[in-house]
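Note to self: keep these together.
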Amino acid sequence: MESDPDLRVYRRSRDRYVLWSTRVADALLDDVSREELVEWYLHKRPDGTRAEIEALVDAADERAATDATETYEESPDWLAGN
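Structure:
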């Protein structure tokens, strides 16, 4: 996402997500649904687009599909700080 490279989405479980900020090194949202995440993003970033945040969530889903760990904290992607 070009407009906000400091945000990263991780999948917590099948339909729950974490929105992580590398700028503040903490979760902005935790244990939220996809729709809650999208609505929060659009409210907080009026210049952002639905496509931008959807791309972050889709990337989290793609990473989770190939990741055999139980939680996002155990994920190699999370541990590497990506």
